[in-house]
Amino acid sequence: xxxxxxxxxxxxxxxxxxxxxxxxxxxxxxxxxxxxxxxxxxxxxxxxxxxxxxxxxxxxxxxxxxxxxxxxxxxxxxxxxxxxxxxxxxxxxxxxxxxxxxxxxxxxxxxxxxxxxxxxxxxxxxxxxxxxxxxxxxxxxxxxxxxxxxxxxxxxxxxxxxxxxxxxxxxxxxxxxxxxxxxxxxxxxxxxxxxxxxxxxxxxxxxxxxx
Length: 211
Ligand code: PRP
Ligand code: URA
Description:
9-stranded mixed β-sheet; binds uracil; two-stranded antiparallel ribbon; binds 1-O-pyrophosphono-5-O-phosphono-alpha-D-ribofuranose; alpha/beta
């Protein structure tokens, strides 16, 4: 049974797009488009229980009470670099969202995260932080990013990843059991180099055309 802090999106649209994303023949332009589309579907899932507040709306015929998400409620926090590929699509859903950046890369030998950048918008008690990274492999990067976010005062944090591996999910459960994790797929395992199997390869390289 998956851990209680994990939601694997079961929607057919996510599954369909994940299959296209994983295909090694998918060119960079289409890959980028798919990363955004899947991120947007997962953000929909991750914000399902967001609080709304009443707003008075004048329709052409009468006045009614609608609901709205408070303007500064959401902060998007991509983990650089691959998380950048998810930002625009999620920001299209939440146009008033702030955007913070956390720079981390994995040391290729130790697989430990190396931190090189951290900047987030001013804190606010009610803010909900959506941490974005396509890949949750060992979980070292996501866990370190969320630790830094918590150290800066953030409290309400959710993690959105396209593909996860069991060690990453377990790491999140151990280090941050209070953080709900939303993924497009939970894959089988990691290989000896820390890559997710079957996975999709190196997300950053496929997004940005590097090797
Ligand atoms: C990738 C990915 C995650 C991390 C996942 O980034 O985008 O941040 O690896 O691995 P982990 O769960 O084992 O920490 P990478 O370090 O390749 O940096 P990049 O985004 O700059 O390419
Ligand atoms: N980072 C990636 O980009 N891909 C993986 O499979 C693991 C970490």
